[in-house]
Write a structure and sequence with these properties.
It is a single chain. A 7-stranded mixed β-sheet has the order 5-4-6-3-2-1-7. It contains 3 helices and 7 strands; from the N terminus they run αββαββββαβ. The chain is an alpha+beta fold.
Length: 154
């Protein structure tokens, strides 16, 4: 009986190592944003077309993921929820500091609904979209530092 428990323990340990290793290996070098020790793997919207589509191409977003919209210069960039299928938080960032957050923005309930625009109170050069409620869950505040890693040309 002792030998069986030892063998099962070893097999379980090996499986855990393999799964953890695969997760770490597949995410090495991927772009991340970290706020208050909470990290998000990033999809990047670099082109104008990618910025127009944004997260609307997804049915949902894993909790530890976000989409980053980098801009050449800080400005009052506006966002809307056209074709979005789930609610989000929009975080406007200037030079690695949160300047404005719009929390728990609902997805449109009807196709022909007039869509509000969401803008920062101060110019921003980065915008991070994450699942609705995570800004509150992790207590993000205006003035918090955002650390971006593994993002080329930014």
């Amino acid at each position: 009986m002792k030998k069986i428990l030892i063998i099962v323990g070893i097999i379980l340990f090996v499986v855990i190592i393999i799964v953890a290793g695969k997760y770490i290996y597949t995410n090495i070098g991927k772009p991340t944003a970290t706020i208050n020790n909470q990290s998000f793997l990033l999809y990047i919207a670099r082109t104008q077309k990618e910025k127009q589509i944004g997260l609307s191409k997804f049915e949902n977003l894993p909790e530890n993921y976000g989409m980053l919209f980098p801009f050449d210069r800080a400005a009052l960039h506006s966002f809307w929820m056209k074709d979005m299928k789930f609610p989000i938080d929009i975080i406007f960032i200037k030079d690695r500091t949160i300047v404005t957050m719009h929390k728990n923005i609902p997805n449109p309930s009807a196709e022909n609904t007039s869509l509000p625009l969401y803008m920062p109170s101060l110019p921003a050069n980065l915008v991070l979209e994450i699942n609705a409620g995570l800004s509150e869950k992790y207590n993000f505040q205006e003035g918090d530092t955002v650390v971006i890693k593994n993002l080329k040309d930014l």
